[in-house]
Write a structure and sequence with these properties.
The chain folds into 2 domains: 161 residues, D-Maltodextrin-Binding Protein, domain 2, CATH 3.40.190; 120 residues, 3-Layer(aba) Sandwich (D-Maltodextrin-Binding Protein, domain 2). Helix content is 44%, strand content 19%. It is built from 11 helices and 11 strands. The strands form 2 sheets. Strands 2-1-3-10-4-11 form a 6-stranded mixed sheet, sandwiched between helices. A 5-stranded mixed sheet has the order 7-6-8-5-9, sandwiched between helices. It is globular.
């Protein structure tokens, strides 16, 4: 056998033996990047940073958080869907850029442009009033609003935001007419509510909790079908007869369409385990936040159903693009 033939056979043999090794390359093979479409230090940023920190041991790689703000989350999410679908670039975000904002602004992506990996947590919002307000439970609260259409204002997180839409979804079903007043987030809403600039606080539980505990305020409605143990006075949507109108504020991990299924499975397992950890639970639960640790399939169902519901709602209140 000539030297040239032996060399050719050796090349073929090496290619054959190396191919399976290349195909089975360890994943992840380098640090991951999670794009968070909010400024550092906010609720979404804190939740995703904690989740990423807890997922690192299972993945065996560092996870770098990259904050990309603008467009109500659309800019950061656009970078997620445009990333190479190898599983090393993901998005960590809340519901608005996925299920709400795209109905109001032109979004450079569709629901089919990304894969749902895992839902980490969710929390209902609450609607609270001063102790002098003439209602002591959720049903009295709704009846009083119905008897005074357009009289009362409620603070929220901005036009088309999670709080605004969760309120309108419920109020429109119950025949309630109120006046939404947009602010830059729960902190700003609370400040204006306590200052008497709006009648009703609409927002997350954590900021208002101290004022409930001292008895100066009372929360009369929660945007979930189940009651909150920490706020027994707040009526659930089941008690109000509209259990299917709940909207929670949630956080989850998504990735660009096309990530290989086996890599999605690795990512899903790591992030679900991170959400189930004691450290994540100990941070979330005292703040009234429910740990979900849901599968990608269940997360996808939530996104799709909420996307459709928000589209219908925003069309009915004139907010669609």
């Amino acid at each position: 056998m000539s030297h040239s033939i032996r060399t050719a056979l050796l090349v073929v043999l090496l290619a054959t033996t190396c191919a399976p090794a290349a195909a089975q390359e360890k994943f992840p093979s380098r640090p991951l990047e999670v794009i968070v479409p909010t400024p550092p230090g906010g609720g979404t940023d804190i939740a995703i940073r904690l989740l990423a920190e807890l997922a690192e041991p299972a993945l065996g790689q560092k996870i770098v958080i990259v904050n990309k703000t603008g467009g109500g989350g659309l800019i950061g999410m656009a970078q997620v869907v445009q990333a190479k679908p190898d599983g090393h670039t993901l998005g960590g975000l809340w519901n608005a850029p996925l299920t709400m904002t795209p109905h109001m602004q032109p979004a450079p992506y569709k629901p089919t442009d990304y894969v749902a990996i895992s839902l980490a947590d969710s929390a209902p919002t609450v609607f609270c009033v001063k102790k002098e307000f003439p209602a002591n439970d959720g049903k009295e609260f709704i009846e009083h609003l119905k008897k005074n259409p357009g009289k009362f204002t409620y603070g929220n997180d901005g036009v088309g935001g999670t709080i605004h839409l969760s309120a309108e979804r419920i109020f429109s079903k119950l025949g309630v007419k109120t006046r939404p007043v947009p602010f830059g987030g729960a902190g700003e809403t609370l400040k204006n509510y306590l200052g008497g600039h709006v009648d009703i606080y609409g927002g997350s539980i954590t900021p208002i909790l101290p004022y409930i505990k001292d008895g100066s305020n009372k929360c009369l409605m929660v945007t979930s079908s189940e009651k909150l143990v920490s706020m027994p006075q707040a009526a659930s949507l089941s008690e109000l007869g509209v259990p299917d109108t709940g909207t929670a504020l949630w956080h989850g991990i998504v990735g660009p369409k096309g990530i290989p299924a086996e890599r999605v499975a690795i990512l899903e397992k790591a992030f679900r385990e991170a959400a189930r950890s004691d450290k994540f639970r100990q941070y979330m639960e005292p703040r009234g936040i429910k740990v979900e640790a849901a599968s990608g399939a269940d997360f996808r169902k939530l996104i799709d159903s909420e996307y459709a519901a928000m589209g219908d709602l925003m069309k009915s209140i004139g907010l669609t693009k």
